[in-house]
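Incident review: delayed structure delivery

Summary: a single-chain prediction request sat in the queue longer than the usual turnaround. Root cause was a stuck worker, restarted by the on-call engineer. No data loss occurred. The affected request and its eventual output are reproduced below so the record is complete for anyone auditing the incident later.

Affected input:
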Amino acid sequence: MAGNKTKVTEVSVTEFLSQVEPERRREDAQMLDGIFREVSGFAPRMWGPSMIGYGRYHYKYKSGREGDSLATGFAPRKANLVVYILPGYTDFSAILSRLGKHKIGKSCLYINKLDDIDIGVLKELVAAGIEDLNMHWPVEPT
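Output delivered after worker restart:
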């Protein structure tokens, strides 16, 4: 059985963030880094070439598939900021309704720029996502 393709790397988060373009996306990414550090209490690690993760968890499904994944984090993509905070176990629509302009995917949130959202609500959502995930799989520092 194949493992996860996305794994922790030794790439420097600070170095990665300093190279994000355009400048506005870099500024938002650096702000997100501060938010995730504050809310999660975890130091960031790079997962794959472009995902910044805070904390990790080990999962093992009934099918036998198992692996490690980031507990929460984000990726500053060209089109938008992709935020990984929706573990998929709980409906966070009440929080999301107060967030501001965003789109959601299966387990992620898409934000064009941080000015489009309420940062306090984002912090609440990150904390709720970590708490929810920790009820299913123990969340640990990376």
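Verification: Residues 23-40 form the longest helix (18 residues).
Action items: add queue-age alerting; document worker restart procedure.
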